[in-house]
Amino acid sequence: MSMPAQTKPVKTTRVLFVFDASNSMKSQYDGKPRIDHAKVLFNRLIDSLAKLKNYEFALRMYGSTVKYPPGDCNDSKLIIPFSKNNVAAIKAKVAAAKPTGITPIEHSLTQSANDFPDVKAVNTIILITDGIEECGGDPCAAKQKLYEKGIIFKPCIIGIGLTKEQAKSFDCVGNYFSYEDKNAFTDVVNVVSSQQMNKTSVQVNLLDLGAKPLETNVNMTFYDEKSGQVVYNYVHSMNKTGNPDTVLLDEFRTYTLVAHTIPPVQKTGITLNSGVHNIIALDAPQGLLEIKREKGLYNFNEKVKCVIRKSGDPGILNVQTFNNPEKYIVGTYDVEVLTLPRTYFNGLNINQTLLKSLTVADAGQLTVKTKESGDGCILLEEKGELKWVCNLENKNLQQFNLQPGNYRVTFRTKSLKQTIYTIEKKFSVVSNETVEVNLFSN
After folding, report:
1. Which of 201, 168, 184 is nearest to 274 (CA)?
2. What is the Cα–Cα distance from 63 to 374, expressed in whole angstroms?
């Protein structure tokens, strides 16, 4: 007997009604006080939404207690908190509301963040108002504060009798609906009820030089542009069809996206369209760089590092190891290999999708022997010039892994103070071979 398929539980949706009970609601609209229109609309909304599965409601009012004038800009209160089976109680409070005070919209929206028990549900607000901010607040700022507290939603604002200019003040807050619009009621119900179903998805296209989204396997970080906080951190991938994979993001933020290529590339001011699939394109053409070295018979190569810089920029982009290809953004680079002496590859062009391969000769090993400690250095002979490689240490036996070439070593024991007692010896280094220099005498 087969077991019935288990259905995924429906996520809770919490709807907070923020109801305007300010003094301006006494004004007449279409033959009766605006608050009467607001109450009729409210009842239709809550009755329709209450029929949906797994919904909870709460009620906050502002301007409902302190008479205007003068009013109180802190006059905003959670009247009934979220719970199940509280619709009748909420409707009774709205029915009893009388226009009284002032309109503190920013304060009310900011306080609303504390009305939601957690951020695990789909949290949203329906604001019913006939006015604009009267307490010097900024509804847009309130929206950011709500984000910072983890309340993610796009409020529905229903305006009764607002002018077009007044309505524009809510553009940055959420979806604005005019009471005069015959479709407003249906539109609000559809927006709220669709929040569970319509996800805001994002596809990041990392573009090559031909503007094709073929780059991938790059870590990418989404920052909240205003707060600077890390919101998402993903490794880019391709799906089974060979297209950039899709992720779900909160649509109510403005993002900065950083792709951690070498060097990193970023895009700022990213906004998303709610409930649809969004594409973010970022130029990130890359090529490969490999620095090779053979594994000799002896361990003369050690674990030498390779320093990568953007040409003309002294800053270090990356420290790469031998025989380990790395991707770089297409461009010109300088490579400094920390051998003795240093090996340089300057003005190196990295081309899209191609592998640039560099080969560094294997080291040989020099052994320097002395009877007592002293001072001196190793010099490379190159094109008739002596170039400093490194200083000797105050030891009787020293070993150095050097690149192939012709060298000289100078040495003067500490017991002999005169310069004329300097010892100089020439030697050559061959890859994967050893050479010994004795500094016991001239």
Report:
1. 201
2. 88
Domain residues of the chain, as ranges? Answer: 13-193, 201-283, 286-359, 364-438
Torsional sign, CA 73, 74, 75, 76: positive
- R_g of the chain computed on alpha carbons: 36
The answer to whether residues 160 and 179 touch, using CB atoms and an 8 Å cutoff, is: yes
Comparing CA positions, the residue from 160, 214, 222 lying closest to residue 36 is 160
pTM: 0.62
Which class would CATH give 364-438?
mainly beta
Q: What are 135-159's pLDDT values in tens digits? A: 888 777 777 677 666 565 667 888 8
Locate 73 and state its tokens: 């800009």
CATH architecture observed for domain 13-193:
3-Layer(aba) Sandwich (3.40)
The topology under which CATH files domain 201-283 is Immunoglobulin-like (2.60.40)
pLDDT in the model for residue 10: 65
Instruction: Tell me if the domain spanning 286-359 has CATH number 2.60.40.
Output: yes
Cα–Cα distance measured from residue 28 to residue 359, given in angstroms and rounded to the nearest whole number: 85
